User: Which sequence fits this backbone?
């Protein structure tokens, strides 16, 4: 049975993270939105210490009062934490040092030895970042069209190509002892079956940061262009098997990364949307406007109907997200549900933040408050980790039972 009631431990952690977001993130949100390429070092160092101690971000599962193992709540707990952090500020949340998407790829497709070798470093030392490099100048959602190549040369793979829009790419490559997981083709003719994931360690010769983007939102987080020019990495840095199977099973294994990360992106979107809803509620309360939940819909004002719709859509997105996270905790395949949650949350947060700005008029549009920033931060949730269109396409394929060739 699905039970979305949170454990006392998770509720306690949720409250603590909310207080952290309110006291340390909100006060500096505007500053690092405007100082896009400067890093909040005090915040980063603090969160490096804090995040390593969070059970939801790693560590052993708790046990019940009688000592029996309790069902895992790690992914659901992570979703809860991310919502609170994004409520504080989405850009600052994304700047927190951690293994990131690169770590998720290693966890999904790496061998036990690779997981230990690449992920253990995030438990000690100075702050570190992991990143993932998929998108290319001529290849966005169609990952089968990747042109970055990986050619075997003795005991090494040699990578050549350009990747864009790599979240935390700068921090992973130049500013820490992190790594980047790069998707490249070992055989273009094999299509998806030839796509493999490779771990490239920080400061590896041949990997350079060519550009750091100026962005609409999430500006406290860096987004980089990476160039690979005869970049040599050890053979053992390939995630999974180097063999090109007759099917794209290896590619599907790498894509499983998104089954874990899409609910997390959805959770961050919900946090931004909730920040906007909370702000509108506070402003209305100050003006003496109370939302009348008890009256018939025909007697509601347009403002009340709009606000209730914002709340309802936000709750629907949260329930889809928690469902996808819960399924992963139970070891249930959640590809359909992960895409449903991501598609719903990405669309909802965009609509909610725009409506919030609309409802408050000049107050919402003013840079005096963070509402216009939340509207800018919201849109990326509808784009990265698979665009709205791609996730809806995945949902349609899963429901109708079509392959990517049959429905594209």
Assistant:
């Amino acid at each position: 049975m699905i039970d979305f009631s949170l454990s006392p431990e998770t509720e306690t952690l949720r409250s603590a993270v909310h207080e952290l977001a309110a006291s340390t993130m909100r006060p500096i949100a505007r500053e690092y939105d405007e100082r896009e390429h400067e890093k909040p070092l005090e915040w980063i160092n603090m969160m490096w210490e804090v995040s390593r101690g969070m059970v939801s971000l790693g560590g052993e599962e708790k046990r019940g009062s009688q000592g029996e193992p309790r069902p895992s709540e790690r992914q659901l707990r992570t979703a809860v934490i991310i919502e609170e952090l994004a409520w504080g500020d989405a850009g600052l949340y994304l700047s927190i040092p951690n293994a990131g998407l690169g770590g998720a790829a290693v966890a999904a497709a790496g061998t036990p030895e690779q997981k230990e070798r690449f992920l253990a470093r995030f438990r000690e030392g100075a702050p570190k970042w992991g990143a993932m490099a998929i998108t290319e100048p001529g290849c966005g959602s169609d990952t089968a069209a990747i042109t970055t190549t990986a050619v075997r040369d003795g005991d090494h793979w040699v990578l050549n190509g350009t990747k864009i829009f790599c979240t935390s790419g700068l921090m992973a490559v130049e500013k820490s002892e992190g790594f980047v997981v790069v998707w490249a083709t070992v055989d273009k003719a094999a299509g998806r079956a030839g796509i493999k994931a490779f771990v490239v360690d920080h400061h590896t010769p041949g990997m350079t940061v060519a550009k750091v983007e100026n962005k609409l939102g999430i500006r406290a987080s860096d987004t980089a262009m990476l160039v690979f020019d005869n970049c040599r990495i050890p053979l053992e840095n390939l995630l999974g098997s180097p063999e090109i199977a007759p099917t794209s099973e290896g590619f599907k294994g790498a894509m499983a990364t998104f089954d874990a990360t899409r609910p997390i992106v959805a959770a961050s979107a919900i946090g931004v949307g909730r920040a906007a809803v909370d702000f509108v509620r506070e402003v209305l309360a100050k003006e003496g406007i109370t939302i009348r939940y008890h009256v018939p819909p025909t007697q509601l004002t347009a403002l009340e109907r709009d606000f209730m719709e914002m709340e309802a859509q936000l709750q629907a997105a949260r329930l889809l997200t928690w469902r996808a996270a819960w399924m992963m905790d139970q070891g249930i395949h959640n590809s359909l549900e992960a895409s449903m949650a991501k598609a719903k949350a990405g669309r909802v947060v965009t609509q909610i933040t725009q409506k919030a700005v609309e409802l408050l008029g000049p107050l919402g549009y003013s840079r005096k408050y963070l509402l216009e920033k939340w509207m800018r931060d919201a849109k990326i949730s509808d784009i990265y980790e698979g665009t709205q269109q791609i996730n809806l396409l995945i949902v349609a394929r899963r429901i109708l039972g079509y392959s990517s060739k049959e429905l594209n």
